[in-house]
Amino acid sequence: EAGVAQSPRYKIIEKRQSVAFWCNPISGHATLYWYQQILGQGPKLLIQFQNNGVVDDSQLPKDRFSAERLKGVDSTLKIQPAKLEDSAVYLCASSLLGTTSFGPGTRLTVT
Amino acid sequence: AQKVTQAQTEISVVEKEDVTLDCVYETRDTTYYLFWYKQPPSGELVFLIRRNSFDEQNEISGRYSWNFQKSTSSFNFTITASQVVDSAVYFCALSEADNNAGNMLTFGGGTRLMVKP
Q: Pairing state of beta strands A65-68 and A75-79?
């Protein structure tokens, strides 16, 4: 079974620029999550999808972050404009029957 | 609100020593799940275990064992005879019970384990 795929793996941008991350979950997993992991901390949930609907986006900074999951499969997370404090690893995950699998993450550096 | 605390930010042991990673959690839910994940230097989170709040039996898997104490809201993880390959950051996490909309995980801050040869 293929795992959760993410791209790109690394991204360096300047502040105020825009960036987008892509995620392909494990086939058949209806639930998809985006987590933000700042260096030295545990992951923090940004948004949770069930199929193509949003279940929880209470911790998503909606003034600059947006996410979509068209057709209930792939998802994209966008930051516009980026700030220095957005430097982190962005983890995509998917779950089925209570077990969550994580992708390799995208390491974002904002300079 | 749910909260997970891993008081040990960093532990250093010599190979073959046993080591216990502590995890204390807070939740108002009566039904919940507890998890441990391993994050090696490569960065990917690797699932280790999921435990239902109604199942307080300790679990052993090879050199790994987990001790769930509902009375003290703790879910500790022990590695027996540690190896250099065990070096990683370990995260304890909590989620509410299964529902049709999946399980959001609340993570602790992680414990960095360094096993020296």
A: antiparallel
